[in-house]
Amino acid sequence: MATLNMVQAIRATLEREMERDERIILLGQDIGRNGGMFRATDGLQERFGEARVVDMPLAEGVIVGSAVGLACSGLRPIPELQFLGFGSQAFHQIEGQVARMRFRSQSRYPMPIVIRAPFGGNVRTPELHSDAHEAKYANSPGLKVVTPASAHDAKGLLTEAIRGEDPVLFCEPLRGYRLIKDAVPDEDYTLPFGRLRIARPGSDVTLVAWSAAVVVAEQAAELAEQEGISCQVVDLRTLVPLDVEGLAKAVSATGRAVVVHEAPLTAGFGAEVVATIVEHAFSALSAPVLRVTAPDAPYPFSSLERAYLPSAERSLGAIRRVMGAA
Amino acid sequence: MSILTTSTGGPTPVRILAPDGSVPDGYRPPLPDSELLAAYRLMLMSRRVDERAFNLQRQGRLGVFSPVNGQEASVIGSAFALDPTRDWVVPQYRELPAMLRQGYTLERFLLYCMGDPEGNRMPDGVNLLPIQISLAAQIPHAVGLAWGLRHQGRDSVVCVYFGDGASSEGDFHEACNLAGVRRAPVIFFLQNNRWAISTPVSKQTGADSFATRATGYGFPGELVDGNDFFAVHEATLLAVARARAGEGPTLIESRTYRMGPHNTADDPTRYVDPEELEAYRALDPVARVRSFLLEAELLSEELEHRMRAEIEEELAAAVAAAEARGAGRPEQIFDHVYADPPPRLLDQRDAITGEAQ
Ligand SMILES: Cc1ncc(C[n+]2csc(CCOP(=O)(O)OP(=O)(O)O)c2C)c(N)n1
Known about the structure:
- The complex is a heterodimer.
- By secondary structure, chain A is of the alpha/beta class.
- Chain A has 2 domains: about 1-185, Rossmann fold (3-Layer(aba) Sandwich), CATH 3.40.50; about 195-325, Rossmann fold, CATH 3.40.50.
- Helix content of chain A is about 35%, strand content about 20%.
- Chain A has a 5-stranded mixed beta sheet with strand order 9-11-10-13-14, with helices on both faces. Chain A has a 4-stranded mixed beta sheet with strand order 5-7-6-12. Chain A has a 3-stranded parallel beta sheet with strand order 3-2-4.
- Chain B is of the alpha/beta class.
- Chain B has 12 helices and 7 strands.
- The termini of chain B are far apart.
- Classes of the chains: A alpha/beta, B alpha/beta.
- The interface of A and B includes residues 33, 298 and 302 of A.
- Thiamine diphosphate (TPP) sits at the interface of chains B and A.
């Protein structure tokens, strides 16, 4: 058991899995000698060679598109998008090809591809680097969308993703790469998809979040605690598949729910969470389900991101409202 | 008449100004002396902004900044071939001097680097599109702009800048293809600075020149020594003349070298061979122009000294103005999102700006 930050856990998992399975090949921008923009692949090219850790031309479409062909050839590619925002350049390959090749080929060509991508804000990156685009991908049938919030989960979920047969978009919280640190077992383990985690027990309100927003929800729970409100924090871990039963159970236990996410409100994944709660736990609800999100404006330039992103304080406001206290 | 011929494309870059500042016998630069000095001054300004911006970034006063260092001849030589009153520049993010030449201001650029969206608002009447972060996305825009201006009977030329890295994106190919079809008055100005962050150009293309790609799109390509102000300038003049005459696009590969880090967050010691860097330092584009100007007795140490002092003042005034204005009022998140904002967005604005008070 070692204490690792998120990026160390991811790096260690990639190394371990590449040792285990030589069909794994990493593709991306600056992942070789430079070890990735955030060092998620640090030293891997030295260790496994240029044939397995490939610095690709600067073109997301061909990074993902060639992964489709590599998978058809029998390899297990792990392409990296330098930032999820630039997944848009590969979106037609991800949504139109990776996600549906199994269906198109009637399972002749499975797509054991894990697309890794840092995402999310509050690290003062230039424009278009910080967007939380997870909902666009969650609405792409055939693809699984995984959003770990701890180093421990990053290892277990990434191992599961790599060993599985379905394509996965593995969203890594940029802000948490170094900030999120926790105990990670040395031995291999997998965490099943579609099982949420209760990050903090509580009895009055259920806060639902994923990725870096789990940290915000936990901070909000601390603030609420000081006002005598007990918040349960649920980390969804994977958006597709969604743990419908776990979600209904968690919300039924408190009767109140607030969803916290970084993406804009309209058509964000929070809408899916609320709809699922309403469908499966309606009778247990004692207040409307609220969402704390970014506004329906483009991700702004860096000087504005603090005001833009959902905060613990803004979440506390919603907690008070579902408690009928504001 | 230009001393260049069209459609060379390689394998040897066209060079006029040698590293020691000498030019072929009898060569006369097409720019008047005052413009040559203005170009040199802009080079000095660019170097100084690079240094100052790094300091400000280290002090936490600026966000991410990408220096021009090493590419001054490439950016400024090309910009001086355009007529800012009718020609357009479509930038990536490493072309501040070309933007200043068009009429952008240092103060706005500093605001941009401070993370204020106003910094990307090009002043009215200035022929510039915003700074582009999504690589290559600006190239199709440039083609549409050139096509649209021609469609409306203007004689404008559009010069779009992008890197060797950006040239790998599909947007590059799609834009060049369309420009060839429409014979749009556009110059594809590819700055091959040998790096895309840590990725060397050898991993970007299997060919030994980017300029030769032009043939496949049906227009000429020029390969020039991008550290040679005159070669870059002459090649761009030729491309401007062709475009203006209705002869369509040109691809210019300006072969230069990124002498600094990719940006303030990058550590090039992880991947740049120090010997290679040293070799390129000997080809410094600014020093070459300086030697030429001194030799031609257009520049004196004293004049240079005055230029530097003025630059220092201008820069200090711009920093003071940008900082006095201050970056980032929460309502800016909501301004300029729609002409007619949805009511929900207005509610969100009220909630967030109310919170900030
Ligand atoms: C579509 C897209 N993908 C990835 C990035 C991240 N990124 C920023 S700059 C850069 C390298 C750009 O290289 P090049 O086009 O050669 O320009 P240079 O920085 O060398 O001037 C990368 C990969 C981006 N901004 N946009």
